[in-house]
Amino acid sequence: MSTTTQETRNGVNVAQLVETIGAIQNDPSLATFRFRATNTWLGGGHSRTSINGFWGAGQEDASRQTPFTLEGDEPPVLLGQNNGPNAVEAVLHALASCLAVGFVYNAAAQGIEVRELEFDLEGELDLHGFLGLSEQTRPGYGHITLTYRVDADATSEQIDELCQYVQRTSPVLDIIKNPVTVTVARR
Amino acid sequence: MSTTTQETRNGVNVAQLVETIGAIQNDPSLATFRFRATNTWLGGGHSRTSINGFWGAGQEDASRQTPFTLEGDEPPVLLGQNNGPNAVEAVLHALASCLAVGFVYNAAAQGIEVRELEFDLEGELDLHGFLGLSEQTRPGYGHITLTYRVDADATSEQIDELCQYVQRTSPVLDIIKNPVTVTVARR
Q: Which residue spans traverse the membrane (chains A, B) (predicted)?
């Protein structure tokens, strides 16, 4: 397989991917990324998150002209007004979009053409935890079920192996499956 | 404190909140919620999540007329085209919007008026994990730092106590801080 700077597979610039890996192998400090977000409460269950700059690859990123905004709210049954998906639904989005990137980038690196990729997710949650009605019930998802459908130029075994690799290296799957330390402080 | 069906505090219908808690105490099965999402890959790092119905309070929710859509992509330095925030940035949004709901709902229940509430979040991540360059480096955030600013009709001690309670009962904080089982299967 030959790669040139023009080559893209699955919409991924494979040469840039190889260069990125090489650059980090030469200078491990380039691998440090710090992502940021600011959230402002707007009333009731409604809040808005603004996402723009981040630190990564040794510098502050300046690629985004305007911030992304994400709305969060609850549905009426949870006392909100449906101004956006709720927080645990946003977790499902984060997980799916992470696995999509991992799947497609690693497929590109392995020379596998992906034509279609789709994820269905479901998370089950018991409201006793959030409402403080039971200390035995965790507030978050007890379990997340994900199914995916892929149309790719690969054997079933290659797809399974790729999927295993993607699961081992997915940032959001790791965040969900394993403990992350969170520090909360008031300004 | 008297509550009527008309009473709202912080934009939260306090009477409905009390009713919801009472209904779940009477019938614990009402506390089971199943949230869903579907994600479709669109090319490169870009995918789109659609979020609409869910199961909760004993029935399929029908309050949303049109699905919410959330875009996910990577910035150019991570081989994407900035069609949306990336997956780990979406995790920060999910965490903040969850804490906002928890803070404001519980403040309303306690009779505390919240005027302003804002969260700043930062998550640090080492790309060695995602790129498969080190099995010692976790793919996800090593650490998330959150600071908040609140203007509310409460003492500093009341705010701290409320914040502790919110942290104990936040679904997304629980999902991030503690392990969640995720099942992945191909269709």
A: none
Chain B contact present for A113, CB below 8 A: no
Q: What is the pLDDT of residues A95-121, one digit of tens each?
A: 999 999 999 999 999 999 999 999 999
Contacts with A, B 47-76, CB within 8 Å: 47, 49, 51, 54, 56-57, 61, 63-64, 68, 70, 72-76
The answer as to whether B151 is a domain residue is: yes
Asked if residue A99 is part of any domain, the answer here is: yes
Angle at which helix A156-169 crosses helix A87-109, to 10 degrees, equals: 120
Give chain A's domain count: 1
Is A47 inside any structural domain? no
Give the CA radius of gyration of chain B.
20
Per-residue pLDDT of A54-64, as tens digits, reads 999 999 999 99
Cβ neighbours of residue B8 closer than 8 Å, sequence gap 6 or more: A44, B14, B108
Which pair of structure tokens corresponds to residue A7?
């080559």
Check which CATH number belongs to the domain holding A132 and give it: 3.30.300.20
Q: Please judge whether A41 and B184 are an interchain contact, meaning their C-beta atoms are less than 8 angstroms apart.
A: no
